[in-house]
Amino acid sequence: MSPSRTAQRTVRDVVFVDGVRTPFGKAGDKGIYAGTRADDLVVKCIRELMRRNPSLPAERVDEVAIAATTQTGDQGLTIGRTAALLAGLPRTVPGFAIDRMCAGAMTAVTTTASGIGFGAYDVVIAGGVEHMGNHPMGAGADPNPRFMSERLVDPAALNMGNTAENLHDRFPAITKERADAYAASSQAKLAAAYAEGQIQGDLVPVATMKPGQGWTVHSVDEPPRPGTTVEDLAGLKTPFRAHGRVTAGNAAGLNDGATVALLAAEDTAGELGLPVKMRMVSYAFAGVEPEVMGIGPVPATEKALKNAGLDISDIGLFEINEAFAVQVLSFLDHFGIADDDPRVNRYGGAIAVGHPLASSGVRLMTQLARQFEQDPSVRYGITTMCIGLGMGATVIWENPHHADYGATSTTDSTSEEGAAA
């Protein structure tokens, strides 16, 4: 009989090394990615990520996780694996697909980060894609009739615009005028960030070809409307309810785009000479009433803060996905944060830049990482988003440029709502 052995358990710090994305496009026949495959957008991102990090041998990538909300057609066939092969990664690199609607890329990051923390991986690529022109939200879905027959959810819960109107009902202090003002501010902040060169460094130029137009290289986002004013937004139609408050101007649009991030164990990053842009502190997901799914970031953030032993006052930067202005404002009101607080979405948000569903989580991370570099006085930042069907997701990050970086240990946990230490 062989001698008894005790298995080793590895728990390590997880760092965000780098992240890139395609310019986001408008969904539909007139959008920049009409006729472009979703998987090709992911491939562009993976190749650029590897090019930007030449000290990383391709064979050291342990996993590729790519999210998509609609996993059919050019977003199907286990897109994490197919995109890895198409990008030229070694065949020994595995991959998988994942779905958590709007938080797909964020879930790809947290899932693989837990694998790093547990010792299953050293280096991973995680991200998401959504081509809403090829795959309109909900197309092909077949909701179980029990949802309606047993009144498990209100029919409005299956339409995100209706859930945003419900959120306005629940919080009457969040008026249409307030939502429009927030939306105009998002457009202005994104325009300023572009003018300062804060966005371009994360973008992967994409060449597309349309019959009769030839090839075009796209190097900026298509959705933004710089110069948008509150007066411009005031007269827009409210498509989800007569005399409602949610419009195309104070909500994110229908968009196409892809994102990917490079994550590693901190010791592996040091070994390979990879940069450390952020360290993961904790993350959490939470379920809420599907009828008011936009409130999801509140309990998710409370759980993530508790897991990390932090308070909302410890957070110096917020990247909140702007599915709807009312959703962001409900989060700010809950935590006593002003609408124009300079810690919030400094470079604008999804109302301006777009929200290609499963890809957006990594966009929040790349923008937070850039802000960390610009502002070493901030130690902790949050990326958070609401999720269709009633959920929220939050990840807390630490700034490696802060004087006290790494001074305290993280929670020893690799659970779904725990810290990825």
From TrEMBL:
InterPro entries: Thiolase (IPR002155), Thiolase-like (IPR016039), Thiolase-like_sf_Thiolase (IPR050215), Thiolase_C (IPR020617), Thiolase_CS (IPR020613), Thiolase_N (IPR020616). Residues 276-398 form the Thiolase C-terminal domain. CDD domains: thiolase (cd00751). GO terms for biological process: fatty acid beta-oxidation; phenylacetate catabolic process. It comes from the Bacteria. The active site is at C102 (acyl-thioester intermediate), H355 (proton acceptor), C386 (proton acceptor). GO terms for molecular function: acetyl-CoA C-acyltransferase activity. The keyword Heme does not apply. Residues 14-267 form the Thiolase N-terminal domain. Gene3D superfamilies: 3.40.47.10. GO terms for cellular component: cytoplasm. PROSITE patterns: THIOLASE_2 (PS00737). Keywords: Acyltransferase, Transferase. It holds the Pfam family Thiolase_N. Belongs to the thiolase-like superfamily. Thiolase family. This is Thiolase family protein. It comes from Paenarthrobacter ureafaciens.
